[in-house]
Amino acid sequence: MKSDLIPELNEISTANLSRTLEGEFPDLGLANGDELLIADETRARPISLRIRYQGD
Fold first, then answer.
1. Which Gene3D superfamilies match (predicted)?
2. pLDDT value at position 50?
3. Which of 2, 3, 25 is nearest to 14 (CA)?
4. I need a labelling partner for 17 at 20 to 30 A (CA). Which of 4, 23, 28, 48 fits?
């Protein structure tokens, strides 16, 4: 598994698995309808993600 190559990354990402996508993310300042731009030097263009919650 790729995460085995970087143990610190595995620890950080494992801690995030218990978080839910319900409600807002006050610690990150993200809310329903917000847009995230994810940029990486290996990509020509950033990836755009919009947060949208669905009701039960």
1. Ubiquitin-like 2 activating enzyme e1b. Chain: B, domain 3 (3.10.290.20)
2. 92
3. 3
4. 48
